[in-house]
Write a structure and sequence with these properties.
It contains eleven helices and 17 strands. It has 365 residues and is of the alpha/beta class. The protein folds into two domains: 217 residues, DHBP synthase (Alpha-Beta Complex), CATH 3.90.870; 121 residues, Threonylcarbamoyl-AMP synthase, C-terminal domain (Rossmann fold), CATH 3.40.50.11030. It has an eleven-stranded mixed β-sheet, sandwiched between helices. The radius of gyration is 21 Å and the shape is globular. The N and C termini lie far apart (53 Å). The model has no long low-confidence stretch (mean pLDDT 94). It binds adenosine monophosphate and magnesium ion. Adenosine monophosphate (AMP) binds next to β6 and β10.
Amino acid sequence: MQTFYWKLQKSSDNQEINTRAARLIKQGEVVAFPTETVYGLGADGLNPTAVAKIFAAKGRPNDNPLILHIARQEDILPLTTGLNANARKLMEKFWPGPLTLIVEKAAVVPDAVSAGLPTVAVRFPSNKLAQDFIKACGCPIAAPSANISGRPSPTNAQDVLEDMQGKVAAVLDGGSCGIGLESTVVDTTSPVPTICRPGGVTYEMLTEALGAVEIDPALQGDKNFKPKAPGMKYRHYAPKEPVYLLEGEAVGLLPQLTARALAAGLKVGVLCGAELAQKIPAHDKLLLSSWGDSLERLAGDLFYLLRDFDRTRPDVILAAGVSEEGLGLAIMNRLRKAAGYQIVTLENGALHLKNDKHLPEFMIQ
Ligand code: AMP
Ligand code: MG
């Protein structure tokens, strides 16, 4: 299939492009578009045949439901049988923005969108380019992230094209996404509102707005819990090479472990903050990706850096964990998934790998 590439202008209403894109959506085709979180792969959310094309383009498992994107607060009303006080409070406080609400589903929403669940996920993005596109379509836009399932989400149009060229009708290029991590997903139907996926709207912001908020215990990677968001059970964000995530005191050992991996002849990818990066000497087999010291910068660059390792192909990747406060909770969730929960900690002076796996050779003294 031919994939149209259309560049959006931030300073204009892009009417002509949006009219063409909306025509494709009405014909049941799939169009990728920018939002403030990551790029989405959009289709008419009320048309099951169009929605099926999203799953096909991504290779997404059918049991992983999609988020419906709207461009006006009130457009949630026909999609749900009712909003409780918590849902209303969150809409008032955080919409438009990087917050997805799980609400009771109305019959008009196809089962293909909700993967057969009695609930549906809805978001009102703040990105003006996304809003104009959705308004032009005149229907809720079902959209997951615009990557092949399992890969890191795309945060610029080139990364979308890398995964979707030839598989979708058009890609709208709106430049880099500001936040860089997917939206926070909150289930408002449970007795205590529950974070199913951490994101740009943080736990701290949600508790300030609502009082008690739970975090889905399955997010810690404990296999005894089934995630409330079906998508959270899948391997995700993973570069093609093994990733080891250092947490707690083990983070400080990153320069040493890098040196050992290099000494073992491995090509080593390293992902860490600027301060730690300064302690790692240059080496021709070292691929060092460091972020400036704000969590916002790391969130914005994380998926791009992870995807970059698929281009530079190290043998192993070592990543430094961060504190789980604020945006750190969402960043650590993505890093843990990218690492397939291969988490390295320091216990009583010895390195340990979580989930009873074996440490790689170069980490054993
Ligand atoms: P994506 O669109 O790829 O960013 O993923 C959307 C996330 O929201 C996935 O983790 C889904 O499993 C989750 N999700 C969507 N709808 C629901 C729902 N009705 N209940 C629980 N989780 C949902
Ligand atoms: Mg996704």
